[in-house]
Amino acid sequence: MKNISGNKKISVKAGTADGELFKDLIEQDGGVKKLLVAPGITAYLMGDGSIIEIYGAGFCYPAYLFSHGNIVVSFKVENVESTAATLMEKGASLLGEIESVSTSYRYCHLLTQENTVIGIYEIS
Protein backbone atom coordinates (compact mmCIF):
# COMPACT_ATOMS: atom_id res chain seq x y z
CA MET A 1 0.00 0.00 0.00
CA LYS A 2 1.24 3.48 -0.79
CA ASN A 3 2.21 5.77 2.05
CA ILE A 4 -0.90 7.88 2.57
CA SER A 5 -0.61 10.97 4.71
CA GLY A 6 -4.26 12.05 4.70
CA ASN A 7 -6.69 11.49 7.50
CA LYS A 8 -9.84 10.73 5.56
CA LYS A 9 -11.20 8.66 2.73
CA ILE A 10 -14.41 9.40 0.88
CA SER A 11 -16.23 6.56 -0.88
CA VAL A 12 -18.80 7.56 -3.50
CA LYS A 13 -21.29 5.39 -5.36
CA ALA A 14 -20.99 5.96 -9.13
CA GLY A 15 -24.02 6.27 -11.36
CA THR A 16 -25.67 8.72 -8.96
CA ALA A 17 -25.93 12.52 -8.97
CA ASP A 18 -23.49 12.55 -6.03
CA GLY A 19 -21.03 10.37 -7.93
CA GLU A 20 -21.16 12.58 -11.02
CA LEU A 21 -20.65 15.70 -8.89
CA PHE A 22 -17.55 14.22 -7.26
CA LYS A 23 -16.15 13.18 -10.66
CA ASP A 24 -16.64 16.73 -11.97
CA LEU A 25 -14.90 18.22 -8.93
CA ILE A 26 -12.01 15.77 -9.18
CA GLU A 27 -11.46 16.46 -12.87
CA GLN A 28 -11.15 20.20 -12.16
CA ASP A 29 -8.36 19.73 -9.60
CA GLY A 30 -4.96 19.70 -11.29
CA GLY A 31 -3.21 18.25 -8.23
CA VAL A 32 -5.14 14.98 -8.21
CA LYS A 33 -3.36 11.68 -8.86
CA LYS A 34 -5.07 8.43 -9.80
CA LEU A 35 -4.02 5.74 -7.33
CA LEU A 36 -6.03 2.89 -8.74
CA VAL A 37 -8.09 2.16 -11.81
CA ALA A 38 -9.66 -1.29 -11.78
CA PRO A 39 -12.98 -2.72 -12.94
CA GLY A 40 -15.64 -0.87 -10.95
CA ILE A 41 -13.37 1.39 -8.88
CA THR A 42 -11.22 4.44 -9.41
CA ALA A 43 -9.29 5.91 -6.48
CA TYR A 44 -7.82 9.39 -6.45
CA LEU A 45 -5.25 10.98 -4.14
CA MET A 46 -6.18 14.60 -3.45
CA GLY A 47 -3.67 17.37 -2.79
CA ASP A 48 -4.37 17.27 0.97
CA GLY A 49 -3.66 13.53 1.17
CA SER A 50 -7.32 12.50 1.29
CA ILE A 51 -8.47 9.65 -0.91
CA ILE A 52 -11.65 9.64 -2.97
CA GLU A 53 -12.89 6.27 -4.22
CA ILE A 54 -15.58 6.10 -6.90
CA TYR A 55 -17.34 2.70 -6.79
CA GLY A 56 -19.28 1.56 -9.83
CA ALA A 57 -20.74 -1.52 -11.41
CA GLY A 58 -18.37 -4.45 -11.44
CA PHE A 59 -16.87 -3.83 -8.02
CA CYS A 60 -17.96 -6.00 -5.11
CA TYR A 61 -18.49 -3.95 -1.96
CA PRO A 62 -20.55 -4.89 1.09
CA ALA A 63 -24.28 -4.26 0.61
CA TYR A 64 -24.34 -2.05 3.71
CA LEU A 65 -21.73 0.39 2.37
CA PHE A 66 -24.21 2.56 0.46
CA SER A 67 -27.36 1.34 2.22
CA HIS A 68 -28.11 4.77 3.75
CA GLY A 69 -26.64 7.15 1.17
CA ASN A 70 -24.28 7.53 -1.77
CA ILE A 71 -21.30 8.85 0.20
CA VAL A 72 -19.34 7.31 3.07
CA VAL A 73 -16.62 9.26 4.85
CA SER A 74 -13.91 7.25 6.61
CA PHE A 75 -11.41 8.56 9.13
CA LYS A 76 -7.89 7.42 9.90
CA VAL A 77 -7.53 6.36 13.55
CA GLU A 78 -4.71 5.00 15.69
CA ASN A 79 -6.58 1.84 16.74
CA VAL A 80 -9.63 0.54 14.87
CA GLU A 81 -10.81 -1.78 17.65
CA SER A 82 -10.71 0.77 20.48
CA THR A 83 -12.22 3.52 18.30
CA ALA A 84 -15.02 1.19 17.18
CA ALA A 85 -15.69 0.25 20.81
CA THR A 86 -15.87 3.92 21.81
CA LEU A 87 -18.25 4.74 18.94
CA MET A 88 -20.46 1.76 19.83
CA GLU A 89 -20.62 2.97 23.45
CA LYS A 90 -21.99 6.22 22.01
CA GLY A 91 -24.73 4.43 20.05
CA ALA A 92 -23.14 3.42 16.74
CA SER A 93 -23.43 -0.17 15.56
CA LEU A 94 -20.79 -2.17 13.74
CA LEU A 95 -21.66 -3.12 10.17
CA GLY A 96 -19.94 -6.33 9.18
CA GLU A 97 -16.61 -7.01 10.87
CA ILE A 98 -13.28 -5.33 11.40
CA GLU A 99 -11.44 -6.32 8.22
CA SER A 100 -7.72 -6.77 7.66
CA VAL A 101 -6.73 -6.08 4.07
CA SER A 102 -3.06 -6.64 4.84
CA THR A 103 -0.85 -6.65 7.90
CA SER A 104 -0.73 -2.85 7.70
CA TYR A 105 -4.34 -1.87 6.82
CA ARG A 106 -7.49 -2.56 8.88
CA TYR A 107 -10.92 -0.98 8.59
CA CYS A 108 -14.59 -1.23 9.49
CA HIS A 109 -17.86 0.61 8.95
CA LEU A 110 -20.38 1.71 11.54
CA LEU A 111 -23.94 2.97 11.42
CA THR A 112 -24.57 6.06 13.54
CA GLN A 113 -27.77 6.73 15.46
CA GLU A 114 -28.71 9.17 12.66
CA ASN A 115 -28.44 6.33 10.08
CA THR A 116 -25.21 7.53 8.53
CA VAL A 117 -22.58 4.98 7.53
CA ILE A 118 -19.05 6.03 8.51
CA GLY A 119 -15.78 4.21 8.22
CA ILE A 120 -12.64 4.08 10.30
CA TYR A 121 -9.29 2.71 9.22
CA GLU A 122 -5.82 2.17 10.62
CA ILE A 123 -2.55 2.08 8.73
CA SER A 124 0.46 0.76 10.58
Textual characterization of the structure:
- This protein is globular.
- It has one domain (8-123): 2,3-Dihydroxybiphenyl 1,2-Dioxygenase, domain 1 (Roll).
- An eight-stranded mixed sheet has the order 2-3-4-1-5-8-7-6, with helices on one face.
- The protein is built from two helices and eight strands; from the N terminus they run βαββββαβββ.
- It has 124 residues and is of the alpha+beta class.
Compact summary:
With 124 residues, the chain is α+β, with helices and mostly antiparallel strands.
Strands in their spatial order, largest beta sheet: 2-3-4-1-5-8-7-6
Which percent range fits the helix content? 10-25%
Distance between the termini: 11 Å
Query: What is the number of E strands?
Result: 8
Would you identify the regions where 5 or more consecutive residues have pLDDT less than 50?
none
CATH fold annotation? 2,3-Dihydroxybiphenyl 1,2-Dioxygenase, domain 1
Element order: H for helix, E for strand:
EHEEEEHEEE
Bulk shape: globular
What's the average pLDDT?
Answer: 89
CATH architecture, please?
A: Roll
Strand content: 35-45%
- The first-level CATH class is given as Alpha Beta
The named CATH superfamily: 2,3-Dihydroxybiphenyl 1,2-Dioxygenase, domain 1
| Protein structure class | alpha+beta
Number of helices: 2
Which sheet architecture does the biggest sheet show? 8 strands, mixed
Supply the number of structural domains. Answer: 1
Rg from Cα: 14 Å
